[in-house]
Amino acid sequence: MAVEHLASFKRCKERICANWSAFQKKRQERLKQQERHGVASEKVAENILEDLFTEVLDWRLSDLNNQLDFADLVLTSSGVRYLVVEAKRPGSLAWSRRAVEGALDQVVRYAAQQKVKRVAISDGVMLYAADLEHGGLKDRVFVSLASPEPQESLWWLSVHGIYRPREDADATLRLLPEESSPAESEAETAGSAILHPKYCLPARCFAYVGNAARPSTWRLPYRLVDGSIDQKRLPKAIQAILSNYRGVKVSGIPEDAIPDVLVRLACAAAELGKIPGQRGETAPVYEQLAEALEQLGKLDEVPGI
Questions:
Q1: C-alpha atoms less than 13 angstroms from C-alpha of 194 in its C-beta half-sphere
Q2: Rounded distance between C-alpha atoms, residue 222 and residue 261, angstroms
Q3: Alpha carbons 52 and 55: distance in angstroms, whole number
């Protein structure tokens, strides 16, 4: 059944629409100190998220757990942990790719330690949520909390939406349109990520991450520390899988995770225009990648091709 037909979806949609305007007014009040002093503390973002989850969505105040095992906020229901949230200073994520990646490194690590499969990051301006799946992140929700329009996709973070898999997610993580953003705190992200002892890279630079808190489970580096594609390592990562494909495991990667890892690598290749049909001549490794994805029925998950 499509979620639009669920009674819980309809009720939550009505609740979001009815309470969004009041949420925006309260959010602006909470951000007043930023207007006065030019900066607001992380606590302000946490308060905005508390309003979002309990007044716009349907979580009870008692479902929210602050500073649980280093995580800023953990949402629970009947004792089960459903979502780990990392909050940052207002405006520190919305316009900074580096800060976003640092926050994701943190929240994925905390979620792995708590064995929670869903994570979110927010600075009170934007909110991004994802599922931890097959060693990577699968988009769940991306919204601007400053939007004047009610964000109905927040249902996927509601009490009855959080545990459901989302297959139609149009929730790609991105930066918001430029505004006069607060000065970014370099120190806030520097040193917050665990680095692989051999490659000196954080988890986000690997195509497969078994456990974000254990670098020994990270496989196939394919991005540089700034998030750009490592053009030397990308084809090697693809070949490492394709040359051994059909085996039970490839370099410590479970076989059922391989399709999603290939999609992840193909998305990087597409960014560089390496996939067949994007440009002129294509290297054999990328032709093999496209063939493998077509066989797996995953080719349509690669944007831009």
A1: 18
A2: 11
A3: 6
Q: pLDDT, tens digit, for every residue of 155-212?
A: 999 999 999 999 876 777 777 775 544 434 433 443 457 888 889 998 999 999 988 8
Please state which CATH number belongs to domain 3-189. Answer: 3.90.1570.30
Domain positions in the chain are 3-189, 203-301
Q: Against a cut of 0.85, is the pTM above it?
A: no
